[in-house]
Design the sequence.
RNA sequence: AGAGAGGUGGCAGAGUGGUCGAAUGCGACGGUUUCGAAAACCGUUAUACCGGCAACGGUAUCGGGGGUUCGAAUCCCCCCUUCUCUACCA
């Protein structure tokens, strides 16, 4: 969440940022938060003064009890009772005000970076660059949901039977291709300096709040009510929460970690057109990269992460484009996001396979993820993450773009990972 | 899952109702000493919020939450977690 000090000291900047993100009730919410903040400080000051007096009296009573002056002690207790009433009332209201302020702060999205383009929706996103050549396919071109049946490598019917829609079973060369991609992506990340991690894929409530999935996207996560745990929608959640409530020593920065996990998304209400086949699933595999850096270095880190993801797509020989998301299309928690889309030749459309974002201090503020700056003061770090990469749409593009009459020719880089060069 | 024992500052480890944010040791940092270093000695050594230009002052925090009390690390209740044994499992 945004820092209250920023709302206080740079209100205009905050309002401008919220407007750029097309956040509906910016000025009203900010005003309400600042009102609560003022009340909060009043209450705290008054509470602390009363508590200080009560502490002093308690000390005096202690002294009197020691000398056996019971009457003297009793005389002071009258005043402590008054003070107690006051501190309790103040503490109760303070808790209420703080909770109210927190709820409002949770509702405010992150502020967009200066380079974020103006715009309301996906059509307003800026195409930064396009790379690679779209393949020209013959007239017998098939979309990937036909190809997977033809080669019997991914089975949706079987997934329906076992679980439900959106939970496919990967079979034969399909399963091996999954495993190959996972290994390829993890190896690449490790070579780029990321430390491999294997985190839990169920997380507690505190972690959900830490990275901002809660309370915002409650309905998008699968929830185990019995243990109050959430199935992760992305490895971002467990990986970033490793550093929740930590003060990271300067010499450990930047943090660079990677991990492969299955990801679970309820995708409530988002099923409709264009979700056939592998385009949108309830469960999928993804390799995530995460960086945590000092504020001055986070945008360099963001560019490095983007370059890493691009190199993966280049090695896979997939045509792609890089988008800089506009204010209205960015995620709630992001300050700047690049989306990477691959060309899906048979569908004739771009598919999002990665999203690389800098959250600046928005997540770190919730996470209390800090470092000790020059002069000994603790300061919030910047958190970043990106998909590198999400598997299903990569598989869709690989199948469609590389189809031939004799099978699917896989890119060279995957041959050794797969143990075969062609599907079919 | 059942029984028992624990969870104290960066670490180790005292403290079982009254100036305890917390002894002591180690580590770290600064200083004295030294050509330099080690050793020795002296000092500093948490986080957050509130007030203040600041110096500084106040409040809270001894796994988390609630309670008893004028006063809680210390007593009571709930939860989390670690270890040992038993059960079970991969």
Sequence:
């Amino acid at each position: 969440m945004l820092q209250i000090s920023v709302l206080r000291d740079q209100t205009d900047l905050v309002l401008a940022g919220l407007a750029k993100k097309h956040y509906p009730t910016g000025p009203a919410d900010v005003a309400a938060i600042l009102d609560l903040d003022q009340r909060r400080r009043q209450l705290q000051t008054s509470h602390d003064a009363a508590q200080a007096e009560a502490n002093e009296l308690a000390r005096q009573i202690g002294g009197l009890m020691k000398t056996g002056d019971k009457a003297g002690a009793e005389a002071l207790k009258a005043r402590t009772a008054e003070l107690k009433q006051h501190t309790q009332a103040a503490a109760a209201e303070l808790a209420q005000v703080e909770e109210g302020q927190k709820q409002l702060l949770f509702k405010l999205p992150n502020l967009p970076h200066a380079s974020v383009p103006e715009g309301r929706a996906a059509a307003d996103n800026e195409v930064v660059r396009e790379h690679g050549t779209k393949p020209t396919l013959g007239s017998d071109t098939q979309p990937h949901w036909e190809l997977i049946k033809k080669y019997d490598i991914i089975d949706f019917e079987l997934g329906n039977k076992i679980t439900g829609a959106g939970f496919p079973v990967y079979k034969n060369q399909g399963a091996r291709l999954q495993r190959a991609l996972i290994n390829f992506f993890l190896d690449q990340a490790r070579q780029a300096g990321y430390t491999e991690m294997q985190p839990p894929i169920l997380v507690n409530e505190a972690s959900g709040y830490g990275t901002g999935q809660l309370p915002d996207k409650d309905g998008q996560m699968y929830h185990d009510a019995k243990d109050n745990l959430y199935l992760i929608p992305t490895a971002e959640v467990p990986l970033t929460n490793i550093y929740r409530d930590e003060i990271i020593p300067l010499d450990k920065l930047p943090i660079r970690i990677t991990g492969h996990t299955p990801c679970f998304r309820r995708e409530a209400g988002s099923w409709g057109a264009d979700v056939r086949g592998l385009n949108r699933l309830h469960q999928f595999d993804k390799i995530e990269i995460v960086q945590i850096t000092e504020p001055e270095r986070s945008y360099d880190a963001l560019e490095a992460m983007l370059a890493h993801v691009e190199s993966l797509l280049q090695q896979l020989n997939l045509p792609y484009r890089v988008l800089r998301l506009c204010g209205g299309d960015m995620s709630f928690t992001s300050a700047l996001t690049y989306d990477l889309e691959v060309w899906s030749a048979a569908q004739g459309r771009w598919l999002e396979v990665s999203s690389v974002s800098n959250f600046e201090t928005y997540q770190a503020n919730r996470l209390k993820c800090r470092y000790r700056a020059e002069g000994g003061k603790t300061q919030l770090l910047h958190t970043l993450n990106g998909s590198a990469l999400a598997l299903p749409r990569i598989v869709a593009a690989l199948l469609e773009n590389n189809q031939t009459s004799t099978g699917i020719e896989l890119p060279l880089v995957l041959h050794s990972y797969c143990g075969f060069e062609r599907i079919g």
Q: What stands out?
A: Residues 40-41, 43-45, 47-49, 51-52, 54-55, 57-63, 65-66, 73-74, 76-77, 79-81, 83-84, 247, 368, 378 of chain A lie near RNA strand B (CB under 10 Å from a C1'). The CA atoms of residues 203 and 280 of chain A lie 23 Å apart. Residues 26-66 of chain A form the longest helix (41 residues).
